[in-house]
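Morning run. Coffee first, then this:
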Amino acid sequence: MNNKLMLKIFSPRIVAKAVMAMDKSTAVIISAFWLAALVTLILAVFAVHGAVSSKKEAADAKVAEPVLPVISNTSLSPVDIQKIMDRMQHQFPDVKFDTGANQTIIIRSNDGSKFHQWITALSYVDTMEPQYRWMINDFCVGTCGNQDMMKATVTGHKVVFSLPQHS
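And here it is:
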C-alpha cells in the first residue's frame, strides 16, 4: 500500500470521526476484543519464556547428571587359573588343586588330618587374589565321592568398571 494512503486512513481526524460514529455498545465489544488479544499476547510471552527456561534447566540437569560406570564380570582365563593353582600348590603342598568345568578350581584332600590346611587353602584363595570375586560352588566335608574327604569348588570372576558407551 501507499504510505500517503496509510497516513490518510490513520489520520487523527478520520480516527476521531470513526470513534465518534461508534456507539457505546460497539466500543465495549471492540475494547473487549482488544483486551482479549492483549491478554493472549501476554500469556503467549509467558509461555515462551517458560519453555525457554525449561529447556535451559533440562540442559543444565543433563550436564549435572553423573556418568555412572558400567560393571561387567569376566571369567578367569586358563592361564590365570594355572598361575593361581601353582601358587596355591606351592603354599599348600598337602592339598590337591585341580581345574574343573567352567573355569573352576577344585580344592580337595583325602586326609582328614589336613583339614586345617584344606580350609586355610580355601580361604587363602580370596586373600591371594583379591581382584577377583570368589564364589564357592560346591563344599563338602565327609564322604565326597572319589575317595575325597574334603572338597570345595570355587569360581573366580573379575569385576571390571568401565565408562558407558555414548550413543
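Helices lie at 3-9, 12-21, 24-64, 78-91, 115-128. Good start to the day.
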